[in-house]
Write a structure and sequence with these properties.
126 residues, Rossmann fold, 5-stranded parallel beta sheet, 6 helices
Amino acid sequence: MKNIVLCGSMKVKDKILEVKSILEKEGFSVLLPVECLKNIPKEIASRAHFERIIDPHNEIILIVNAKKNETENYIGPNSFAEIAFGFYFNKKVYLLNDYYEPYLDELTAWNVTPLKGNLEYIKNDK
């Protein structure tokens, strides 16, 4: 079974936890952003999460790009950095929803796959 690293804004933490639950029921091993687990400084949390992304045992990165405030498919600066790490380390990177328009050029060039809310596609990547 493949390991999935979840990423996303802590403003959508509830959605991240919901996605984790769904994927675990399908048999995936799911790693949350460290900030979901502990209240620690952002620098430490970011370094720890980047280590999870580059770990060779963790093959899939899933960005939970839910609606934030009034912005659909939001990808913040930290999640964009996580996508870049995933790309650089040859991970399969998915977006839970559709492309975030401001980063469309990079996301398509880096072969990031939008799931458009349908986790069935990632379930088939077992």
